Amino acid sequence: MTASAPIEVDLALLGGGGAASLLLAALDRHGVRDLRIAVVDPVRRRGQDRTWAFWGHPDSDLDPLLSASWQQVEVTTPARRRVLDLAPLRYAMLRSGPLYDRAAEAERRLGAIRIVAPAASVVDDATRVVVRTGDGGIVRADWVLDSRPRPPARPGRTTWLQHFRGWWLESDRPAFDPARAVLMDFRTPQPARGVSFGYVLPVSDRHALVEYTEFSPALLTDAGYDTALAGYRDLLGLDPAGLRVREVENGVIPMTDAPFPARPSPRVARLGTAGGATRPSTGFTFSAMYRQADQVARALAAGRPPVPEPAYPRRHRWMDAVALRALDRGGVGGPDFFDRLFDRNPAERVLRFLDGVTTPVEEVAIMNSTRLLPMIAATAGDAAHRVRDRLRPARPAPAIPAAVVGGPPIVGRGSAAR
User: Fold this and answer.
1) What DSSP letter does each residue of 208-228 carry, written as one string?
2) Which pLDDT belongs to residue 60?
3) Looking at the predicted structure, is the pLDDT value of residue 324 above 90?
4) 18 in helix, strand or coil?
5) Within its chain, how far is the Cα of 372 from the centroid?
6) What tens digit of pLDDT does each residue of 47-57 get?
7) CA neighbor of 35 nearest in space, from 26, 44, 48
């Protein structure tokens, strides 16, 4: 491909991670054919480079790809351990490898053109979009769907990060309950400003992803993550002498009320975190990405513009902003906040709320579960901050930091990092 020979397509996908992979699979699933598609990404995604956890109904389109799923989960605080029955939902784990494989097969069936180069510039003149690639090529598209990571349009009133490290542990003897996942375990030491918890996603009685997560403004050091994970391993009563770390996962996800414009120009739409799919109060992203992919595929199959709906209702984004502010200013404690949500609501309602699919009546019940005075104070502070934002000039937002990646930890008789 050269600048003198542009590639003409109906749809260009910029980025090839989870959002683009789900979209390719959805286009194939909905029978979209005779559409000229280009995928512009400098990396060919293969293998296990991340793990997604989400809740949904059994027997979904994704079932053949899952590593494991659970109808019961635990939410634990220093005061008690709560076992939640998720029926009719289930909690599920999807590793990236099977999704990338499905996307590659869909790409082949769709006859998509793969351009292994970054998108250097995107110019939308409202009738066509011109994408110049890092290798000097040009792609002209009717529509562009952009899932590349990017900072928000301006700084948020509250900006935290969900940052984590997980160990895929293999045990010499049965050590995990494969019928039950640990969704949130708040017995971990809590940071001065933020929330921490551990969780356990078992795929067998000897193999599980054990992870330490923080919601806080700043990342830890490499040694800090390993120390926290080792502490959580010991809290679970796991014997390090009988464990091996087979893989290590690291990640950073924005938790902010800052805006991520989903429609930067007439013929460009954003997907994934860049398109607002990350839930500010929890960092969960996968379910919204899946919905976006399905909406775009259905639109294209019906001959409509490939523009997904907003990932979450506006009222949910407002509730997230208030909750983040209350947590950040110390008005409520993280363990207490989540403990009250699960204590005073059916698990299904809480999970659907976190997915952004509850009704206003259900959301009133959710809000009544929280502590009233801190939330009133956070609501008033958020309103005042919004007024100040309108009066002062916009400032650029900092980029989302990269995950801290270190060498393999020494656990038991050996370890292997990805």
Assistant:
1) EEEEEEEEESS---HHHHHHH
2) 82
3) yes
4) helix
5) 29
6) 888 999 999 88
7) 26
